[in-house]
Specification:
Elements: H1 2-8, H2 11-18, H3 36-43, H4 48-62, H5 65-72, E1 77-81, H6 89-98, E2 102-106, H7 113-116, H8 118-130
Parallel strand pairs: 1-2
Helix pairs in contact: 2-3
Length: 135
């Protein structure tokens, strides 16, 4: 069923679905090519749906990301979008902070923070790499 759904998904539906990850007003896929989302969908392995929608959900239910962060015992930087429509940033940030992560919320970014604000994300990662623990 996933393979059939994958093959039959029209490009317009892929573009609409992709909007959830980005802030309102942001170009659908972060590029100047309106066909990019459709091309990426066509190149994707249809098993991805099961991995993301079922397997990942079960794995995270058994071992949530904040628990994984705590168990790492290493410095962690979590960069969240303040306008994330998939995972509200305030409770997510609180969970990561409680697990010991350094959290930065970019207020005007959505779920795909690295697409919405690539320069800001790169700067944060560079700074974290230089100083992974607070002074």
């Amino acid at each position: 069923l996933a393979t059939l759904t994958h093959r039959l998904t029209p490009p317009w539906m892929a573009r609409i679905s992709s909007r959830v990850g980005f802030t309102p007003g942001h170009h659908d896929d972060g590029s100047d090519d309106p066909q990019r989302i459709a091309l990426e969908l066509a190149a994707m392995n249809p098993r991805m749906y099961r991995t993301i929608l079922a397997d990942r959900r079960a794995l995270l239910a058994a071992h949530p990301l904040d628990v994984q962060v705590r168990d790492l015992g290493q410095p962690v930087l979590a960069i969240l979008g303040g306008r994330d429509r998939l995972y509200p940033s305030a409770p997510t940030a609180a969970r990561y902070r409680a697990a010991g992560a350094r959290v930065v919320v970019i207020d005007d970014a959505g779920h795909a923070v690295n697409i919405d604000r690539p320069v800001e994300v790169a700067d944060l990662i560079r700074e974290f790499a230089r100083r992974p623990t607070p002074d």
